[in-house]
Amino acid sequence: MDAAFTAEQDEIRRTLRDLLTRHGGPGEVRAAVRTTEGHDPALWHRLALELGLPGLAVAEEYGGAGCTATELALACEETGRALLPSPLLATAVLAAPLITALGTPEQRAELLPRIADGTLTAALAVPGGSMAAALGLTADNRAAAWAGGGRAGGIQAHPDGGGGWRLYGEADRVLDGHSAGLLLVAAHAGGYPRSRTLLFLVSAESEGLARTRLTSMDETRPLARIELRDAPARLLGADDGTDVCGALADTGSRAAAVLAAEAVGAAAGALERTVAYVKEREQFGRAIGSFQAVKHRLADLYVRVEAARSAAYYAAWDPAAGPLALAQALEAARIVAGEAVQLHGGIGFTWEHEAHLYVKRAAADELLFGPVHRLRDHAAGRAGLFGAVTADGPVRGVAV
Known about the structure:
The chain is α+β, with helices and mostly antiparallel strands.
């Protein structure tokens, strides 16, 4: 493994950081989250047209750059540093890989070019509001609890008799679900006899679809409730026994690596702002950053951020390490954001201060994709550290 970045990868990082430094400051972030979309549409189109951000990991044959998860992780590290509200995570990290893995050639040709050029945004809607479980990050997603089961619960899919499908049910905490032009909906099909989970494509203009933006802890992560009342839908791919849960888990591992890089960027951003503050804030006639106790605290935070960054970069190369890297990065972001508030003193405890943007991002991400202890527990269980592993999880106390 060559850990050095290429010139192209360094250029992606530098160009994006320069752009977000000019157009993604705390004031711009607060203004963007109060728009109807929950992000700045003009900046999003600029990121898509000038930098090709949503198409970084999309194959060249579909108008993308054909890059790897590493380039996408580097880009998300920079968007995390600025706490940029954008559809990038929901569209490029979660939806596009599922369309690539499961879609028919016609569906890929129809949707991926529009995702790559930024004209189409997408969101993954899973019932129960448990994104982490659906992606196999905190539990075995082959257990049907997160998707509903039997003849009721979750989101139910029924053939409409004309080759299409109708969906009924609702999903909470759908990331960017209120503004996405396309929804990928996980639904339960077949009732009890042929129980299975499938993914469906639902247009934002579909009849029977209602979307409500929710009040969320972190406004830079807009969430929505999706209600489907006999909404027309197209099956993603073919109902031919394709392992949908396996595709969700594979996407989850790769997404975890990108999310880890984004969380590292947020932690680094909070640390950089804190270091700049303690160099300027004076007490007893000297900058508080010159006090040994403050230096030690900052040094500990720096080591924690760098360790999480190394784990995130490794996971971008080996997605199997994604959930563990995500756990380390989320923990680092939470601790660094909390320390940032403390080291800013009285001003850091005001809601108006930018330090709280990082606190809210760290807390919200752990609620959405964690918690940390479950990420680690599931990863340890899959590795057999606690004993034999069955379909229902590890069997405690059984030697391996």
